[in-house]
Design brief:
Alpha-Beta Plaits; alpha+beta; 4-stranded antiparallel β-sheet
């Protein structure tokens, strides 16, 4: 039996305070397809970067998983890209 591909989506969010709510709505809509979620942003002392990166590992129907890219890219200040790792 062939293993499923690993589908990773990287999300760059600018102005996290302004766009976090819209991004969270999309992530909630696709929650059943999100196996792993990792958020990264710079923090030092009392400073928190306005920009951030979210990495998602997606599972399930590939077409549905890839539709998250369009939903995220429709949000101003958000860019989403995919990485697909296949098994030989």
């Amino acid at each position: 039996m062939k293993e499923a591909n690993h589908l990773i989506v990287g999300i760059h969010v600018t102005d996290r305070v302004r766009h976090a709510g819209a991004v969270q709505k999309v992530l909630t809509r696709y929650g059943a397809n999100i196996k792993t979620r990792l958020g990264l942003h710079e923090v030092s002392g009392d400073f928190s970067s306005p920009n951030g990166i979210i990495l998602l590992e997606l599972v399930g129907d590939t077409r549905k998983c890839l539709s998250i890219l369009k939903a995220l890219d429709s949000i101003h200040g958000v860019e989403a890209k995919k990485m697909v790792f296949t098994h030989d």
